């Protein structure tokens, strides 16, 4: 640490996120420190390994969705996709035969093209993690990737899925391969037969990650869909989080039910936040919810609520044990708690405008932002992944965050997802995504949804605003990138 | 009010561990001597207790020491020493009995059975015992053949053991090595084929590799995550509060004020102190509150802001003095004194909430090496309680004065603490528990221990 006399920089509070940042000449200085925690120094390349139908793409997509949700820009690169774009038409498994020179050449080209895109994403587009989704079943192919990563300063983390259970493989094929563009013109039996032959093409040259010869690599080997894991050389925070996540997900069929508390007293008064009780209609909803749940005949249903009166009152009507999570509490609106939107506009017009500019990152004074909410909800998501059938009775902003995770919504979309009162969303994982069924329980309630207003319809543009408008908030990605380029 | 409070506590999942908790769990350590079993046992127990899962270690060696008063030499552990074998088996049984009592009578949730458990036979006995009682079992095996690590272990913890207290170091080392040999012949590692129905984690070479099999539930998943994040690389953690703030001077709690002139001086002193420590690759963490960031700014190095490190939210009492709290919320004030750990400010947080909010910070501290955390009084108390294994009753009264740096260095099974007061005066913000915590107490009794201010 160099010897500097204490000449502390002035601090200003960023008006949107309420983050204290050092400033220079009245403008916020570029500084990495406004991120929660440095997840990664250099970008990370996750490389899947495994025979076809071992869940690689399932894992890739799910992991990507999770990382993006927690704020780590991630993208998956599916080599099979590149191949489909190049080849236009898939004829048969013969393309994958190890002695098909033409096929091998094309496949190698596709892998290179994908790696090129990876490089661009991680070095120029602000990506932090890239998931390279392909079989990568030979040491030679993995060696090439490791070299590529070394040249570009990326960390590599392998995720190998090993499974020999014929039932699991069959189910995989049925769930995701039959619907693949490769098999749109085949009947089921033909498709399955061809796919089994395709797997055979890889089997002879498959070299699994070896405990001894690959001991310097960082990897996780997932055996039999999560019965067993072998974890080697986890290097940093992000790899540790990835391992933890992969060890908590499962594929047992189940459903997650999301709903808000019944209509509350403050809801009908048009006020946000607070801790009020249910209205008569809200209680009606709770009763209907109980009936609904019973008709669903759900095995071993867990029920979770927040620690706010309205969700607990709703759960009480179900007459089953439930668990209260403080982290499921509604977003803290700080100084705006229990105000109506009209009152917020009157008393905090600037805040109101800022919120509409970037509803995801905007933090209420002495309160929270959606971004904060996501962070606080991460343990809920992790536990939801571990569990099977769960009913979560929560709040509008909270439900939007959870829904965004399951439906892979961006930060821009998240705060405007529609989560009306008195409706239940039933989420059922299927193939690579989530089936959503919306069930309205036919009990009237006020509407609490506020769309993003048209640009330019609001705001008192008094002089105080000028400062903020002149200094646009720079997103962390851009800032970090510039720093990274300088270092390299 | 009382009934509501009780009910809330009953259903209360402090959100870390699902409360409608299932069966108790027995964690069974496996491994040759000097493989870190006791280190892991104690650390894991400390962590679980901190996050609110009542856990206790049952160290069979301790039982043996109680039974056999004086330890002569390694011959006690020879596999053909029948008398000793009988004693050792009896000790293991006694420990298991205490495990059962801990679960049934003391509301324990996790018991860590710390012994070598190196034979399939012994492990089968424990498994049957657990099955019979309806406990879950999770094995933690530590495998290491690196002679340097083993020697270092022996030096760090065995020489100080009651077994070797009057021995010369060379002698002790030789005897311990012989002791390890006694176990080696009969050591059967957990078998990946034969034991595939068991739930376990195998830790290889102090964490460079792990094998995890059949994680059954939430608590086992958390245990695995924790074990995979801890390391034994020597390092130090520095804990400090922000410099004295404007609100500190006025005796107000909470808020987001700037540093006072003395606070700024402290920041400068902290910078000099840190430079003097010559720390390799120091990471600096602050909260999102102005006073910690101002303090970090003076260091002139990069720092990371964590919202999770923000001071406890005092809800309706934010920015009030203790006198104002007593005047406006006398009942709340009394309840807080009754149970300062669990008491939650209206529209605010409790220490218990704080601990859960800080769990990711602790996890990352475990992963990191040298770190300086600039935080706040309640937050620092929580972090300190984790490192020093303080209970929920002690935690809210730990002394964390302004302008003092605590340097924590892991050593043997615990943590060495060095306290550095950087010679810049500051107000006292510590309030002891008053004698009278009754709701109907007089204001003077409530404010008896409130610190002075402007």
Automatic annotation (TrEMBL), chain A:
Q: Which GO terms describe its cellular component?
A: cytosol
The residues covered by the 6-phosphofructo-2-kinase domain are 39-253
Q: Which GO terms describe its molecular function?
A: 6-phosphofructo-2-kinase activity; ATP binding; fructose-2,6-bisphosphate 2-phosphatase activity
Where is substrate bound in this sequence?
Answer: 260-267, 310
Give a yes or no for keyword Cell inner membrane in this entry.
no
Keywords (alphabetical) are: ATP-binding, Hydrolase, Kinase, Multifunctional enzyme, Nucleotide-binding, Phosphoprotein, Transferase
InterPro entries cross-referenced by the UniProt entry: 6Pfruct_kin (IPR003094), 6Phosfructo_kin (IPR013079), His_Pase_superF_clade-1 (IPR013078), His_PPase_superfam (IPR029033), P-loop_NTPase (IPR027417), PG/BPGM_mutase_AS (IPR001345)
Gene3D superfamilies from the entry?
A: P-loop containing nucleotide triphosphate hydrolases, Phosphoglycerate mutase-like
Q: Which domain of life is it from?
A: Eukaryota
Q: Which GO terms are recorded in the biological process aspect for this UniProt protein?
A: fructose 2,6-bisphosphate metabolic process; fructose metabolic process
Q: Where is the active site?
A: 261 (tele-phosphohistidine intermediate), 330 (proton donor/acceptor)
| A Pfam family recorded for this sequence | 6PF2K
Q: Which family does it belong to?
A: In the C-terminal section; belongs to the phosphoglycerate mutase family.
**Per its record, how is this protein called by name?**
6-phosphofructo-2-kinase/fructose-2,6-biphosphatase 4
The protein's organism comes out as: Nothobranchius furzeri (Turquoise killifish)
From TrEMBL, chain B:
According to the UniProt entry, its GO molecular function terms are:
6-phosphofructo-2-kinase activity; ATP binding; fructose-2,6-bisphosphate 2-phosphatase activity
Residues noted as binding substrate in the record, renumbered to the chain: 241-248, 291
List the SMART domains: PGAM
InterPro entries according to UniProt: 6Pfruct_kin (IPR003094), 6Phosfructo_kin (IPR013079), His_Pase_superF_clade-1 (IPR013078), His_PPase_superfam (IPR029033), P-loop_NTPase (IPR027417), PG/BPGM_mutase_AS (IPR001345)
Q: Name a biological process GO annotation.
A: fructose metabolic process
Its keywords, alphabetically, are: ATP-binding, Hydrolase, Kinase, Multifunctional enzyme, Nucleotide-binding, Phosphoprotein, Transferase
The protein's job, in short, is: Synthesis and degradation of fructose 2,6-bisphosphate.
> Which protein family is it in?
In the C-terminal section; belongs to the phosphoglycerate mutase family.
Q: What is this protein called?
A: 6-phosphofructo-2-kinase/fructose-2,6-biphosphatase 1
The species is Nothobranchius furzeri
């Amino acid at each position: 640490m160099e010897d500097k006399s204490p000449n502390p920089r002035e601090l200003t509070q960023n008006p949107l996120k309420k983050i204290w940042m050092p400033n220079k000449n009245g403008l916020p200085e570029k500084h990495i420190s406004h991120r929660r925690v440095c997840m990664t120094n250099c970008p990370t390349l996750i490389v899947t390994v495994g025979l076809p139908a071992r869940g690689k793409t399932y894992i890739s997509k799910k992991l990507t969705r999770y990382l993006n949700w927690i704020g780590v820009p991630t993208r998956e690169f599916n080599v099979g996709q590149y191949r489909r774009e190049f080849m236009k038409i898939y004829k048969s498994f013969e393309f994958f035969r190890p002695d098909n020179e033409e096929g091998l050449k094309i496949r190698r080209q596709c892998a290179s093209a994908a790696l090129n895109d990876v490089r661009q994403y991680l070095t120029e587009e602000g990506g932090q993690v890239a998931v390279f989704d392909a079989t990568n079943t030979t040491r030679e192919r993995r060696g090439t990737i490791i070299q590529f990563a070394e040249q570009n300063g990326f960390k590599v983390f392998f995720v190998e899925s090993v499974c020999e259970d014929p039932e699991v493989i069959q189910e995989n094929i049925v769930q995701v391969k039959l619907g693949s563009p490769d098999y749109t013109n085949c009947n089921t039996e033909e498709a399955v037969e061809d796919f089994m032959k395709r797997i055979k093409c890889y089997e002879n040259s498959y070299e699994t990650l070896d405990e001894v010869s690959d001991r310097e690599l960082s990897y996780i080997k997932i055996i039999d869909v999560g019965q067993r894991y072998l974890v080697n050389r986890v290097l940093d925070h992000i790899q540790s989080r990835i391992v933890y996540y992969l060890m908590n997900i499962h594929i047992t069929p189940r459903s997650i039910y999301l709903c808000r508390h019944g209509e509350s007293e403050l809801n009908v008064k048009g006020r946000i936040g607070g801790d009020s009780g249910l209205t008569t209609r809200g209680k009606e909803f709770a009763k209907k919810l109980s009936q609904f749940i019973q008709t669903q005949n759900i095995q071993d249903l867990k029920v979770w609520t927040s620690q706010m009166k309205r969700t607990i009152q709703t759960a009480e009507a179900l007459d089953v044990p439930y668990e209260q999570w403080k982290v499921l509490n509604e977003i803290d609106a700080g100084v705006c708690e229990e105000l109506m939107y009209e009152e917020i506009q009157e008393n905090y017009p600037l805040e109101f405008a800022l919120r509409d500019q970037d509803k995801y990152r905007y933090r209420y004074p002495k309160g929270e932002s959606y971004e904060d909410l996501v962070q606080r909800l991460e343990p809920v998501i992790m536990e939801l992944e571990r569990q099977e059938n769960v009913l979560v009775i929560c709040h509008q902003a909270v439900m939007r965050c959870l829904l965004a995770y399951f439906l892979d919504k961006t930060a821009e979309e998240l705060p405007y997802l529609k989560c009306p009162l008195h409706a239940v969303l039933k989420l059922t994982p299927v193939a690579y995504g989530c089936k959503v069924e919306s069930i309205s329980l036919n009990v009237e309630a006020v509407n609490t949804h506020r769309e993003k207003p048209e640009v330019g319809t609001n705001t008192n543009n008094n002089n105080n605003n000028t400062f903020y408008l002149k200094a646009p908030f720079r997103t962390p990605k851009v800032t970090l990138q510039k720093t990274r380029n300088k270092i390299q | 009010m009382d009934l509501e409070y009780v009910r809330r506590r009953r259903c209360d999942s402090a959100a870390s561990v699902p409360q409608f908790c299932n069966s108790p769990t027995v964690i069974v350590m496996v491994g040759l001597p000097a493989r870190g079993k006791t280190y892991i046992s104690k650390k894991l127990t400390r962590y679980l207790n901190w996050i609110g899962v009542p856990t206790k270690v049952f160290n069979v060696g301790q039982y043996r020491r109680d039974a056999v008063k004086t330890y002569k030499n390694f011959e006690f552990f020879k596999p053909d020493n029948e008398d000793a074998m009988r004693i050792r088996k009896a000790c293991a049984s006694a420990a298991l009995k205490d495990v059962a009592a801990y679960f049934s009578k003391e509301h324990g949730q996790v018991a860590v059975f710390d012994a070598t458990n190196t034979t399939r036979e012994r492990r089968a006995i424990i498994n049957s015992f657990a099955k019979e009682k309806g406990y879950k079992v999770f094995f933690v095996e530590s495998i290491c053949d690196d002679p340097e690590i083993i020697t270092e272990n022996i030096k760090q913890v065995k020489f100080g053991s009651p077994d070797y207290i009057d021995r010369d170091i060379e002698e002790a080392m030789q005897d311990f090595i012989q002791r390890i040999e006694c176990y080696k012949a009969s050591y059967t590692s957990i078998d990946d084929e034969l034991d595939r129905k068991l739930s376990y984690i195998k830790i290889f070479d102090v964490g460079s590799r792990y094998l995890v099999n059949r994680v059954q539930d939430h608590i086992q998943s958390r245990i695995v995550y924790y074990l995979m994040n801890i390391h034994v690389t020597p390092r130090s953690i520095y804990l400090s509060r922000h410099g004295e703030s404007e609100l500190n001077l006025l005796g107000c709690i909470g808020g987001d004020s700037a540093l006072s002139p003395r606070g700024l001086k402290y920041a400068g002193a902290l910078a000099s102190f840190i430079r003097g420590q010559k720390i390799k690759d120091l990471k600096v963490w602050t909260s999102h509150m102005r006073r910690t960031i101002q303090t970090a700014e003076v260091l002139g190095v990069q720092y990371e802001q964590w919202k999770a490190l923000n001071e406890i939210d005092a809800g309706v009492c934010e920015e009030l003095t203790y006198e104002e709290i007593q005047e406006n919320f006398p009942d709340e004030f009394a309840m807080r004194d009754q149970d300062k750990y669990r008491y939650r400010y209206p529209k605010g947080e409790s220490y218990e909430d704080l601990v859960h909010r800080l769990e990711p910070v602790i996890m990352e501290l475990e992963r990191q090496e040298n770190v300086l955390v600039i935080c706040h009084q309640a937050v620092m108390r929580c972090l300190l309680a984790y490192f020093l294994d303080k209970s929920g009753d002690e935690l809210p009264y730990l002394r964390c004065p302004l302008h003092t740096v605590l340097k924590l260095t892991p050593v043997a099974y615990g943590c060495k603490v060095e306290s550095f007061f950087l010679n810049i005066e500051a107000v006292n913000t510590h309030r002891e528990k008053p004698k009278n915590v009754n709701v109907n107490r007089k204001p003077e009794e409530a404010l008896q221990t409130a610190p002075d201010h402007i």
